[in-house]
Structures are given as C-alpha cells and as structure tokens.
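User: I'm putting together notes for a lab meeting next week and I want to include a structural view of one of the chains we've been expressing. I don't have a solved structure, so I'd like a prediction I can at least talk through. The sequence is below, exactly as it appears in our construct file.
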Amino acid sequence: MPRVDGARLFREAWTSGVRQHFPGEPKPGYVTPWEDMPQREREAAGPVFHQVRQFIEVSDGHTSRLSREQKSRFVATCWTAQMLKHFEDPKPGYVADWPDLPTWQRETDADIFEAIEKA
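Assistant: Thanks for the context. Below is the predicted structure for the 119-residue chain, given as structure tokens.
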C-alpha cells in the first residue's frame, strides 16, 4: 500500500475511534479531515501505519492473538517516536507513556491497529 494511502487509513481509523470513544465532543483538531491536517501529522501517520503493517507481516498475521492493550501500546509507542522526530520539545501529552493516556485514546489506538490488520 502506498505511504499516503496507509497514512490516510491511519487517520480515518483515528477519526473513527475518536468519534466512538471520546467522551463528549472531541476537539476539532482530533477530527480534522486529512486535507486540513498539519503537515507534520500527515508525515507521522504514514510511518506508524507501516510499522504496524510490518509488525503484522513479520508475525505471519498472528497479531490477531494480541490483546487490545498490546495493540494499543504498539501504536502509541510508534506515534511517540514520530512526535520525538517531528518536535524538538514536544508537549508532554504528545509523548505520554501508554498508562498515562486517556482511555479514549488507548481504545482509539487499538482500533487503529485492528483497522490496519483488516486492510
């Protein structure tokens, strides 16, 4: 899958997850359409998609046996690496450890992993 298609799939899964799991009305930036996203976020989405995709491939598709927590942690860790790459001094929320993420974000990250599994 081309990098931009994977990045868009990542974003669509994120937006869908936010709409499902966020308590109340999400911040507009959480559900911004692909075309209106900041460039650095678009540049970060593709590598995370491909890291998850490669992880699925090297396991011969056995990632379906991972728990949702394991899937979510993997996505969160990959995203944190991208935030460190794109920001000299990222906000603490951008690089928070998985247990410190809000429940809605952990669930959304698991949804992202599962969307990539299905793709």
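A couple of points you could mention at the meeting. Residues 3-16+39-62+73-118 form one domain. The chain has a mean pLDDT of 94.

User: Perfect, that's what I needed.
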